[in-house]
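ugh ok fine here u go
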Amino acid sequence: QVQLVESGGGLVQPGGSLRLSCARAGFSLAYYAVGWFRQAPGKEREVISCIDSVDDITYYAESVKGRTTISRDNAKNTVYLQMNSLKPEDTAVYYCAAVHSWNLATMGLPRENDYDYWGQGTQVTVSS
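structure:
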């Protein structure tokens, strides 16, 4: 059952930018840590970023560090993933997931089965 809704995916040229959004009506994401994952064809799903629910501590995978920013707007109940300098290898389906009351500093990075809610994914294609 889809609990979160991702948007913002699409086709972009190498070097371009996209901002993905993760939103949910019905409960406040302010109390949830939100992770962004991606799954490329033929590959396992990987976590690329996470923002926690306590101090907005963030995590970035090495593959996206320096090119990606995760942020939240509690007034809009939305978490964003700004991706710049996109590469063809960033092509994947991107998912967001939320877990309640998760402190990255004390609890580490959530595993996939720690998350309470998932979105259905949004396709990002980086190609000229």
